[in-house]
């Protein structure tokens, strides 16, 4: 029987990063993955393929809508080759997953393919695809089994016309009309992909606004921009039934006035969040506690009630984000090795990769009001930037919330071109407890989108924005 210092169950961003960090710290490490490719949901059916399709559809949208204004003329009709677009997406996924395998080999991490389940607290059975079972012994185990798409109890997912994000990433045709149930990150990103490619897209959201966990100003601006792009919205709307008749999907729902509406489409994407995935883990076999939401219970060290077993990522409480899982993977590896790492969960940024991109870190304005914190706001529109006008990306703004007395930055919320990258500046500033004036006094290159961060900081500092 093979013996290891650490075994990691699950090879997503949390799991493979945990395994690498454990190996770097001198531990003999194994990683167990039930699928034939490493990388988990993020690399195979999540972050990476969706970004590939977002970029491809963005190029097509620009060619159809914007090239002419840039003086670029394309003879003939611009067409979508969906098959080729999907092939490129698959190639990007394959290269990325192969990169993870390379990292496992480089760090001398043993990879086991199969379903890992606890025999007891130190022994893990690995059920392979050929039906054979192998058992390994691990002094410590890190559970990183991730999540899967959630569903509503009355919806039957046939995975052909009534689909999850997994199927939406490999459609063989462009929908005529796609209804997206859920106005969160995944639904909006994939909805925009198919809207750009020519589908009619309707988003149905139970709450009163889209991206409801982010600052309300971002929700309002993103919905306004997506409406301009042709996406239709039904907020404060409760879906009651989803029925398939042949190639037609009939969605019935009650709107904000409790009036029944009916929407017909050829595809329905159910995007109502994700839920922890522990199927086949046999947590009971090791005595590991799972809460009523299916999450592994952990303490502040991400340690379960069983002292040698830890859990990270989507399978524990907190935001279901790949980069949060990565931070937790490194964190646990360092805890096991006797170090004293830290994670500030308030400073884990959130991003929506639509165009314009949406990014946020820290407290929202609604949270500050609820907590009774006195704050000041600085806001700067992207349209006031020379760089935005040059590229034609004038939608959006940067909003900085700072403590009224100390000027410490409490939250940064932005929507616009490349805000997924710009948010890192805010994270760095807030990690060092910077004030709005600290950011305002730093030189930002001109012309860049990042100037909007400086201007928003100036606006929060005695309303000193220069370019509005």
From TrEMBL:
Bridged cysteine pairs (disulfide): 42-47
Domain Pyridine nucleotide-disulphide oxidoreductase dimerisation: 348-457
Enzyme Commission code(s) on record: 1.8.1.4
Cofactor binding: number and manner: Binds 1 FAD per subunit.
Pfam families in UniProt: Pyr_redox_2, Pyr_redox_dim
Cofactor(s) recorded in Swiss-Prot or TrEMBL: FAD
Residues reported to bind FAD: 51, 116, 145-147, 314, 320-323
Keywords: Disulfide bond, FAD, Flavoprotein, NAD, Nucleotide-binding, Oxidoreductase, Redox-active center
GO MF annotation: an example: flavin adenine dinucleotide binding
Domain of life: Bacteria
Broad class of enzyme this protein falls into: oxidoreductase
Residues that hold NAD(+) according to the record: 182-189, 205, 273
GO annotation, cellular component aspect: cytoplasm
The FAD/NAD(P)-binding domain, residue ranges: 4-329
Annotated GO biological process: 2-oxoglutarate metabolic process
Catalytic residues (positions): 446
InterPro entries assigned to the protein according to its UniProt record, in alphabetical order: Class-I_Pyr_Nuc-Dis_Oxidored (IPR050151), FAD/NAD-bd_sf (IPR036188), FAD/NAD-binding_dom (IPR023753), FAD/NAD-linked_Rdtase_dimer_sf (IPR016156), Lipoamide_DH (IPR006258), Pyr_nuc-diS_OxRdtase (IPR001100), Pyr_nucl-diS_OxRdtase_dimer (IPR004099), Pyr_OxRdtase_I_AS (IPR012999)
Catalytic activity: N(6)-[(R)-dihydrolipoyl]-L-lysyl-[protein] + NAD(+) = N(6)-[(R)-lipoyl]-L-lysyl-[protein] + NADH + H(+)
Family: Belongs to the class-I pyridine nucleotide-disulfide oxidoreductase family.
Miscellaneous information on this protein: The active site is a redox-active disulfide bond.
Name by which UniProt lists this protein: Dihydrolipoyl dehydrogenase
Species of provenance: Salegentibacter holothuriorum
């Amino acid at each position: 029987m093979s013996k290891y210092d650490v075994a990691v169950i699950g090879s997503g961003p949390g799991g493979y990063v945990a395994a690498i960090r454990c190996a770097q710290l001198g531990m003999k490490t194994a990683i167990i993955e039930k699928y034939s490719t490493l990388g988990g949901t993020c690399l195979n059916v999540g972050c990476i393929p969706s970004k590939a399709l977002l970029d491809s559809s963005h190029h097509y949208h620009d060619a159809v809508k914007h090239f002419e204004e840039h003086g670029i003329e394309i003879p003939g009709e611009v067409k979508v080759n969906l098959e080729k677009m999907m092939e490129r997406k698959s190639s990007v996924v394959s290269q990325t997953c192969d990169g993870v395998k390379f990292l496992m080999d480089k760090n001398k991490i043993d990879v086991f393919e199969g379903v890992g389940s606890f025999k007891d607290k130190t022994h893990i059975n690995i059920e392979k695809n050929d039906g054979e079972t192998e058992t390994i012994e691990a002094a410590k185990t890190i559970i990183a089994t991730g999540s899967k798409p959630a569903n509503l109890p009355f919806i039957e997912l046939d995975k052909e016309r009534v689909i999850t994000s997994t199927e939406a990433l490999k459609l063989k045709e462009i929908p005529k009309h796609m209804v997206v149930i859920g106005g969160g990150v995944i639904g909006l990103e994939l909805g925009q992909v198919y809207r750009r490619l020519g589908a009619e897209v309707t988003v149905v959201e139970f709450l009163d606004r889209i991206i409801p966990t982010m600052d309300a100003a971002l929700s309002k601006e993103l919905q306004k921009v997506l409406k301009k792009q042709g996406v239709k919205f039904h907020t404060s709307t409760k879906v009651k039934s989803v029925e398939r008749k042949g190639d037609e999907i009939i969605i019935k729902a009650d709107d904000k006035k409790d009036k029944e509406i009916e929407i017909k489409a050829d595809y329905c994407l159910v995007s109502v969040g994700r839920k922890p995935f522990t199927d086949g883990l046999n947590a009971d076999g090791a005595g590991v506690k799972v809460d009523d939401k299916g999450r592994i219970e952990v303490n502040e060290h991400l340690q379960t009630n069983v002292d040698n077993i830890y859990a990270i990522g989507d399978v524990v409480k907190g935001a279901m984000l790949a980069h949060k899982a990565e931070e937790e993977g490194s964190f646990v590896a360092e805890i096991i090795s006797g170090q004293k790492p830290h994670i500030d969960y308030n400073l884990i940024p959130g991003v929506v990769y639509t165009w314009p991109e949406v990014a946020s870190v820290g407290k929202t304005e609604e949270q500050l009001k609820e907590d009774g914190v006195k704050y000041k706001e600085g806001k700067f529109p992207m349209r006031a930037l020379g760089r935005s006008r040059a590229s034609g990306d004038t939608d959006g703004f940067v909003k900085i919330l700072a403590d009224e007395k100390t000027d410490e930055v409490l939250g940064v919320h932005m929507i616009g071109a490349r805000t997924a990258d710009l948010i890192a500046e805010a994270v760095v500033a807030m990690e060092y407890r910077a004030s709005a004036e600290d950011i305002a006094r730093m030189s930002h290159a001109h012309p860049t989108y990042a100037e909007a961060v400086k201007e928003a900081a100036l606006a929060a500092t005695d309303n000193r924005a220069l370019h509005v």
